[in-house]
Design goal:
The complex is a heterodimer of chains A (348) and B (294). Chain A is mostly helical and 348 residues long. Chain A contains 15 helices and five strands. In chain A, helix 3 runs antiparallel to helix 10, helix 3 crosses helix 12 and helix 8 crosses helix 10. Chain B has one domain. Chain B contains eleven helices and four strands, in the order ααααβββααααβααα. The chains are: A mainly alpha (348), B mainly alpha (294).
Amino acid sequence: MTSKKKRIKDNLITYGIVIALYIVMEILLKTGNLSSHLKGLLVPMTYYAIIAVALNLCVGILGELSIGHCGFMCIGAFASAIFSKLTADTLPDGIRLFIAFIIGIAVAALFGFLIGIPVLRLKGDYLAIVTLAFGEIIKNVINAVYMGVDSKGVHFSLNNVMDLGMEPDGQVIINGAMGITGTPRTANFTIAIVVLLLSLFVVLNLMNSRDGRAIMAVRDNSIAAEASGINVTGYKMMAFTISAAIAGAAGVLFSHNITSLTATSQYFGYNASIMILVYVVLGGIGNIRGSVIAAAILYLLPEMLRGLNTYRMLIYSIVLIVMMLFNWAPAAIEWREKVVNRFVKRNA
Amino acid sequence: MSFLIYLINGLSLGSIYAIIALGYTMVYGIAKMLNFAHGDFIMVGCYVIFTICSTLSGNTLVGILAAIVLCTLLGITTEKVAYKPLRGAASPLAVLITAIGVSYFLENLALLIFGADIKSFSSVVSWSGLSFAGGELKIQGVTIVTILSSIVILIVLQLFIHKTKEGQAMLAVAEDKGAAMLMGINVNKTITLTFAIGSALAAVAGALLCSAYPSLSPYLGAMPGIKAFVAAVFGGIGSIPGAMIGGLVLGIVEILSRTYISSQLADAIVFGILIVVLLVKPTGLLGKVIQEKV
């Protein structure tokens, strides 16, 4: 039972860190100690933590490298933004956001499932490059699509707004590369933290369940797992779909925190996906709490360095390289153990 | 006739992808790592040529040679400082993230030195090209030079790998690092040599890329880099002829779909073809199938 108790304690610490962070930020907000610039970073910081948790489920628990997770975030963002824009005048804010979350998560999960069918047949780097390809395809297709609604229904086009052939009173929803404009800004820091806690709850409970153990068995040795009667494909699909769904939830927060949503490569390209991977690896592969902390610190770090102006991204990249070398290089690990041993001996 | 012109343009773009992909695939085959900074080596090469051509005398040949030398040194240094310490790390992802760090570093360094404004690059090929069928079919000089240089590079590389001792050592390290070490091959030196060759190829690719698309920015290497990576996977990563074929197919598909289907969907089509190929043949066109044993 001790291991179970330790696990529960461990999970409670994770929730506690998030809640403590929330309380500190709220106090700073209420007392007016937070600059308006930093205030604007709170929700993004949280959705990056959420997508880092999602990616860690895929990379750390399932053991498959995905470099297209921002594609699922993009799908969640657009699916929910379309709904919110359509119902902006008819539904009250709270209910609309709630349904938007359900839609964003469901559509992202559906795409995760559909993409998972071909992707999970591949292995290693091939799987990684195909996830990258899917992420880029999602971004490019959304950038090329025009969508409008009038009394006759929904119209699609790949050329321009005129090609939609809408009635004069029709409403343009997706304006190609201009994206969706005029989505209601209903997300806030409290909602974001609640979503983060819920995704942590889902992932941590999954990890400690029978299904989670099966997923980790597939990660450690898929052949041995299969020989033990574990449905390898089924569990892979399950983890990948849940991961996509959580990324979709991050996307809903993304689209409801801004007024005009465009599928730019800055937020949804492979570079953004790789940035999330950086959070996951630095936080510790398979360590969910680490992902949250790393996402929060690394997201805020470039902003903290803003005083250094032009040098900040240069310093950020050097910090990244040095941290990786310090954390992962066998020589550095040996050196760290030596230092720790010396310290322990002196105390004993 | 216009189809032929697009096809030749596609071949030319494909040749550039192929040269970049050769660097990717060699490094992957031997060091088993994805060098995400490879695309940025291209950018460094372009800026070196640009600086030398615009400030010092303007001799293009000197510029290209300087770019090759500097990129080679950069490749060797990067490998020694950032990648080598992580060889044998617990997770193969560690070195991948470090490579991303190097990529950010190079991009931001270039941003700091040269600024974010796009600079125009004067072609390294001054020859105006050939004209066929009474001027109806015009092929630019840079296009011909690009296609020819990729063929020359492929032949030289194949000869180097199969006929020289160093090349054989590369093949041995790619096959089995441990066994190669036991046979007295200096694995570290072989990996360094691979990085040197890959980075030199990146400089050549940079010169050709910027001659065909003459706008310089600190991020110019990122997209060609990722497409070349796709090309390398498409052809079967680790295989040199595979990288060549992958690059050419990718270039032709990109130009043709940009012309005949949609310029916005061209990248989506390129990536879509990659997915279809990998689903039919999960190790790429010329990739080796490795049997997994329990």
